[in-house]
Amino acid sequence: MTSLSNAAPWPARGSYADGFGSVARVFASQLASGAEIGAGFAVYRRGELVLDLHGGFAERRTKRPWTEQTRVCVFSVTKGLTAMAFQLLADRGRFDWDAEVASHWPGFARGGKERITIRTLLEHQGGLACLDTPLKLTDTIDERGRALVREALEVQRPLWRPREGQGYHALTFGMYAKELFERIAGESIGTFLLRELLEPLGSDARLGAGPELDRNVATLYPKGVPGLLASTLVTSLASPRGPEAAVAREALRPTALSRRAFLNPAIDLPGRLAAYNSVEVRRAELAWASATTSARGLARAYLPFASRGEHGGRRYLRAASLEPLYRRGGWSEHDLILHKPLGWSQGFLKEERHVFSPVPESFGHPGMGGALGWCDPVNELTIGYVPNRMDARVRSPRALALCHALYDAPPIRDAR
Question: pLDDT tens, 272-283?
């Protein structure tokens, strides 16, 4: 068993194993510089915890400290948890990735979608990144809005010929995934994940968190509109051809795909993005955005996915069912929504090499604001990073710095 005998450098707290001190120092420097308000960072290697760091404030006004149990909403990191649920279900023979969605959900066949497969849908190639029907966030939370949401999903026509284009389904991914999963499994994603993966692993990640976890929830601090505009302007000037600049330009055009993909359903709870601090959101199973977790809990959720389906003497998935995740299922040099090269395999993000990992077999999902859940099945690494200061950039430089430091740490660098 790995010993975490080294205390994290101030102002970070927690501990780390021998050889990972440089990573702990990067984490501490981000706290000291004010880049973080509060955050947690955890890494497992070969099933053993090697970095368990936290620090700063879970709540800035009261100066409530961030502890190893502090959890926060992780936005699109949720998509990785949703992909885990589908992976487990497919491993058990409950569906085939190349089956048509309509074979499980007949109403989906409306609007020219009858040939779209489950793989195409979950790899963001179905042309369904935007909805024509205006919806509100509360429609997706309140059971009374379920019929309205289902109708909007069913009547939507693809925006491009399926499999012939790729555009990040920022919100619609989870809306379609939720309806499809429940039709296949007969239960919700959150309920299934808790029983089949999270509780057995001892992970505190939850899609639909109960009141017993409320005391550990951190407050999210998104940038206000002036801060977002200023940050976007600086980033755009520094890199006018970069993805953030392209997304920013499209945000100003009402008909642009990027704007439509991120703004429908519209947030109709107080506080814009701060609405994700609300009890209503964290109780809901929004399969694209509402999961809450600690850093350690997030890293633990990926453990079987980094070790060929097994952890702690229990087999969660067959090793063979994970092999497609090591390759790119779909890829685009210019995603139509995010304007950068990326792809997906069965719901998990496949990034460019040297972004989060130099290992092409790695996969996971980041979230708006900076959070990251990731795994590397070659080095058997799992990563959980959860901050409460939200970043406006597509790839958070704080997450990147931590990942780069991890791969530069002697135990990982020297093993390559």
Answer: 788 999 999 999
